[in-house]
């Protein structure tokens, strides 16, 4: 059921696109093999259901904000709102450590996304150990796959100049941020 719900939230967000609709698909249409591979991986991530989707959304939004992908923040914010994330949670992503908008587990997930997105990836051992006290190994594998895929997504979109489409227009949206130093 979670997979169907996530697919519906994503489709709802995509239907809300108001502008620049052809940016990504125009580029991927030039290399159908790459487009097909992306569709397959995106579909597999949608069907992985061991991890609470809200945790995935938080991790993906943190990653998109750190990579500064406006398209990813646009669609991610729309999907996250449909998944139950609050305006407070979206607004407080840059200051999650001191925010009361998140549980301790959510803060760990966001910290893990931040550490995986850093170049090079840093301080993962302690975070992984801490997460494994609260998540199963399959849930952690799913989380790591979602974060690494968001890094790929965001960097591909930036490299190709994919612009936001307005999927999150009129709602609170996660914002780009500078990586912690």
Cα radius of gyration in angstroms: 15 Å
Query: Number of DSSP helices?
Result: 9
What is the overall shape? globular
Ranges where pLDDT stays below 50 over 5 or more residues in a row are none
Instruction: Please tell me the overall pLDDT.
Output: 85
> Which H/E pattern describes the elements?
HHHHHHHHH
Query: What is the share of helical residues?
Result: 55-70%
Structural class: mainly alpha
What report would you give on this structure?
It is a single chain. This protein has nine helices and no strands. It is globular and about 45 Å long. By secondary structure, it is mostly helical. Helix 4 runs parallel beside helix 9 and helix 7 crosses helix 9. The mean pLDDT is 85. Helices cover 64% and strands 0% of the residues. The chain has helices spanning 2-15, 23-28, 32-47, 53-67, 70-83, 87-91, 104-117, 124-131, 137-160.
How would the blueprint of this fold be written?
Elements: H1 2-15, H2 23-28, H3 32-47, H4 53-67, H5 70-83, H6 87-91, H7 104-117, H8 124-131, H9 137-160
Concise overview:
Helices cover about 65% and strands about 0% of the residues. With about 180 residues, it is mainly α. Helix 1 packs across helix 5, helix 4 packs antiparallel against helix 5 and helix 4 (about 55-65) packs parallel to helix 9.
Please give a handful of descriptors for the protein shown.
mainly alpha, 181 residues
């Amino acid at each position: 059921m979670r997979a169907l719900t996530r697919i519906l939230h994503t489709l709802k967000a995509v239907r809300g696109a108001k502008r620049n609709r052809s940016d990504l698909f125009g580029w991927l249409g030039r290399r159908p093999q790459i487009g097909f591979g992306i569709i397959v991986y995106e579909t597999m991530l949608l069907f992985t259901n061991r991890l609470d989707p809200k945790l995935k959304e938080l991790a993906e939004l943190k990653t998109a904000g750190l990579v500064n992908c406006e398209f990813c923040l646009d669609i991610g914010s729309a999907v996250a709102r449909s998944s139950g994330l609050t305006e407070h949670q979206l607004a407080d992503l840059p200051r999650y450590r001191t925010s009361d908008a998140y549980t301790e587990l959510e803060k760990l997930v966001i910290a893990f996304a931040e550490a995986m997105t850093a170049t090079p990836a840093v301080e993962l051992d302690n975070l992984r150990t801490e997460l494994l006290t609260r998540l199963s190994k399959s849930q952690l594998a799913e989380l790591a796959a979602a974060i690494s895929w968001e890094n790929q997504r965001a960097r591909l979109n930036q490299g190709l100049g994919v612009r936001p489409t307005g999927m999150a227009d009129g709602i609170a949206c996660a914002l780009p941020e500078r990586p912690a130093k």
